[in-house]
Amino acid sequence: MDLVIRGGTVVGESGPYRADIGIRDGRIAAIYSPGNAVEARATIDANGKLVLPGVIDVHVHMEIPFCGTVSSDDFASGSKAAAFGGVTTMIDFAIQAPGETLAEAVAKRKEVAAAKSAIDFGLHCGITDWSPATRGGMREVVEAGIPSFKVFMIYKQEGWMADDGVMFECFEEAASLGATVCVHAENPYLIDVFTERALASGRTDAVQHALSRPNFSESEAVQRAVYLAAMSGAKVYIVHMSASDSARVVEEWLACGYPVLAETCPQYLVLDNRAFEGPDGHLYATCPPIRFEEDCEYLWGAVAGGSIQVVSTDHCSFTRAQKDAWGGDFRKIPFGLPGVETLLPILMTHGVGEGRLPLERLVEVLCANPARIFGLYPEKGTLSVGSDADIVVIDPKRKKQITPGSLHMNCDYSPYEGDTLTGFPDITMQRGRVIVEDGKFLGAAGEGRFLERKPAGGDESG
Ligand SMILES: [Zn+2]
User: Fold this and answer.
1) DSSP 3-state assignment of 267?
2) CB burial class (10 A; 0-12, 13-18, 19+) of residue 439?
3) Cα 105 to averaged position of ligand 1 atoms, centre (Å)
4) pTM of the model
5) Quick one: which of 83, 140, 191, 246 has the fewest CB in 10 Å?
6) Is residue 40 domain-shared with residue 129, that is, in the same domain?
7) How far is the CA of 312 from the centre of ligand 1 (A)?
8) Which domain holds residue 389?
């Protein structure tokens, strides 16, 4: 063995158990009953610690041109920060530019990410310029290891919006390829109505960002997207679901036997619209918006109960200076929040620590389900013999208060400032190599691998 992790409590999908883990050639080579590991060249003492699979954040946007600027984390800073937060795999987006083929979009994005990412990564392919050629290009993308697409029901100005016809045809093609379609579900026409009303009443303050996108402007879009997906036979995955009404829509479809997949993000679980009060309110603008306390509680229940299968971050950081460019007009705030580094600690602290999620459910929604849904299982997302040794060791007693200087994202604020979190890893390991240890980064930009994924089969809901 190259390395053994001794004495830890391993968290599997069926619960925590005591075991030692042996690692050879970057993979998990053996799982031993406690104290029975063979000798190895190196040992990690995990007594009193939790040993988890590396977290898979399936929704991040590094260095993305958006809202007239570029998100402040590039693949180097973002992946490094991810490692500090126990994330060992991320999936970003290759979004098609007008006139570009899907293959060109993918090739460009892959090159940028591969040069800089310190952790393993995959890509989803964002479809924005629908045509017979685009449709024809989807197969090539799937064959290149990208069996997941994304369509946006909003963002007409950015040139990203898919209307219902485009969305339906995209679903049809994805269904024939066994691919999954991720959908940003909001209704742009309703948002326009409420935006106009806010402006007519002279209100441009930060909370209008949220109030102009009421819950039903999301849940209606979720309903429509899932309906169209069901009629086409496509696997649909609703990204960053924020409203309790949307979760109820998903639950109705699940009750009808349609296997819709859905994710939410930490910002929708632990923040509510009180965040928009005060001079920093605009820092919290993201799409869909942070909602109400009752939404948070409902979403926690959906995550625990299984109707939401994944928690990801939608990491899209902008600095204070970038956010401050809004000039008092909620329509001009760059939308997005930093979060890749705090995903696991937020769920450990406010989910597991506050009795909302058992540890094994945390491992399902952060590791196993993302891996299954996006074609990475069992190489990623589980601590099993043969899996990649992507491993996180956590001291459940260690706490850290979030301050502007305490995190590694290229962002000078955190939405969680002042919060005291457990769950920052003592050790993050990728394919058997320690990349974070005791607050030190030991990885390097460019060491992450592009993950060629396969269309997932079978039952991915869990
Ligand atoms: Zn996103």
Assistant:
1) helix
2) exposed
3) 17
4) 0.97
5) 140
6) no
7) 10
8) 3-52+384-396+423-441
